[in-house]
Design goal:
The protein is of the alpha/beta class and 392 residues long. Helix content is 47%, strand content 15%. The protein folds into three domains: 147 residues, 3-Layer(aba) Sandwich (Rossmann fold), CATH 3.40.50.720; 146 residues, no CATH class; 65 residues, RNA polymerase sigma factor, region 2, helix turn helix motif (Rna Polymerase Sigma Factor, Chain: A), CATH 1.10.1740. A seven-stranded parallel β-sheet has the order 4-3-2-1-5-6-7, sandwiched between helices. A four-stranded mixed β-sheet has the order 9-8-10-11. The structure holds nicotinamide-adenine-dinucleotide and magnesium ion. The site of nicotinamide-adenine-dinucleotide (NAD) has 27 residues, from α1, β2, α6 and α10.
């Protein structure tokens, strides 16, 4: 007898990861079904996805979009139920409307629904790295208590996950080598970065991604967030995580064991591989991604990151070492700064400056509860916003 299809909730369905997830789901109609689709504000894009994937539920975050979603579903003759807001999303994620959740909302806005999936013991394909940076311990504890299986959907962490299949492997783990493409500005000095534009920053050489993570890749904050993410997912301290710039983006990360072995996972830079691992693990299914032709690529290079040109990576290591509320402050200040940069309110170098300034203004405090982390997040947002206004 074949297993029933996995009922998948895709949160952030209209985004880059959401699109890749739906592509993999559509390749396996017997095994995977999109049962809940959720998006932030683009009602038309969500309606088009509902027409294509016929989910039971569609959720729009922005309440102003609810009527358009409900009416659009009706006009299209779809039986999909319309919902709006975070609370509806949390209820659906925790209900039997789904057994698998792709957490691909961008930013701290994804925390509530990601946490709900962990608490409900769902298989959690976790792309929303900001929720781990903000509340990693709480999220990992919730998943462990409820028996939720977290499969990381960040190419690096998915690589490490594949290299560390069980607890025996963890026991002999010496360190993690996290690869970074270096982003669009690799090789530039700090002074070369003064006038770079949002268009240049989002033009990633290897990956096609949403605007926020693309800017994070350009500042190397993305790698900084990933260091904190790796700490929570795999239980290693920052001193056991090394970042290697690897411009070809074919080696997605490596793990070194105490016996001198180093394992790596390689593949083309396409998130559908990680998503297919997440849906099928421990089995393997077709993702639509071709295998790697190493002869065609020829070489694999590795370099040390330039922390002078890209101080965000250093700030993230420091926030991880400080612990408590510091990673939440780092993340929130960065979200505000990236959004201001994309709106051309500040320059590129102001992003690390604002994050550093906010971390200095709000020294780390112990953070044992979600409320204290959310409070730190809100205070950091206010501080960064004020600093932007004062700069103008
Ligand atoms: P994106 O900007 O392309 O998509 C974001 C999605 O989130 C959209 O569907 C948007 O409608 C939705 N959204 C935004 N705010 C929301 C809210 N308040 N409530 C509900 N939905 C909301 O972003 P992306 O590149 O797909 O990245 C999504 C997440 O995955 C991020 O956390 C990112 O760091 C992580 N990630 C992405 C990639 C990638 O290749 N794109 C790789 C690794 C990790
Ligand atoms: Mg990554």
């Amino acid at each position: 007898m074949t297993a029933p299809a996995r009922k998948v909730a895709v949160l952030g369905a209209t985004g880059s990861i959401g699109t890749s997830a739906l592509d993999v789901i559509a390749r396996h109609p017997e095994a995977l079904r999109a049962s809940v689709l959720a998006a932030g504000g683009r009602v038309d894009a969500l309606l088009a996805l509902c027409e294509r994937h016929r989910p039971e539920h569609a959720v729009i975050a922005d309440e102003r979009g609810f009527a358009a979603l409900r009416d659009g579903l009706r006009e299209r003759g779809l039986s999909t139920q319309a919902h709006c807001g975070d609370q509806a999303l949390v209820e659906l994620v925790g209900s039997d409307a789904c057994d698998t959740v792709v957490a691909a909302i961008v930013g701290a806005a994804g925390l509530t629904s990601t946490l709900a999936a962990a608490r409900a013991g769902k298989r959690l394909l976790l792309a929303n790295k900001e929720s781990l940076v903000l509340a990693g311990e709480l999220l990992m504890d919730a998943a462990a208590q409820a028996g939720a299986c977290i499969v990381p959907i960040d190419s690096e962490h998915n690589a490490i996950f594949q290299c560390l299949p069980d607890a025996h492997a963890h026991a002999g783990l010496k360190r993690i080598l996290l690869t970074a493409s270096g982003g669009p500005f690799r090789g530039r000095t700090r002074s070369d970065l003064t006038d770079v534009t949002p268009e240049q920053a989002v033009a990633h050489p290897k990956w096609s991604m949403g605007p926020k993570i693309s800017v994070d890749s350009a500042t190397l904050m993305n790698k900084g967030l990933e260091v904190i993410e790796a700490h929570h997912l795999f239980g290693v301290g920052g001193e056991r995580i090394q970042v290697l710039v690897h411009p070809q983006s074919l080696v997605h990360s490596l793990v070194e064991f105490v016996d001198g072995s180093t394992l790596a996972q390689l593949g083309l830079p396409d998130m559908r591989t990680a998503l297919a691992v997440g849906f099928a693990w421990p089995q393997r299914i077709d993702s639509g991604v071709a295998g790697l032709d190493l002869l065609a690529h020829g070489r694999l290079d590795f370099e040390r990151p330039d922390l002078d040109a890209f101080p965000c990576l250093r700030l993230a290591f420091e926030a991880l070492a400080a612990g408590g509320t510091a990673p939440a402050v780092l993340n929130a200040a960065n979200e505000v700064a990236v959004s201001a940069f994309l709106q051309r309110r500040i320059g590129f170098l102001a992003i690390p400056a604002l994050v550093e300034d906010t971390l200095a203004a709000l020294p780390s405090q112990p953070a044992s509860s979600l409320a204290s982390l959310r409070d730190a997040d809100q205070r950091a947002r206010r501080h960064a916003e004020q600093a932007i206004v004062q700069r103008a």
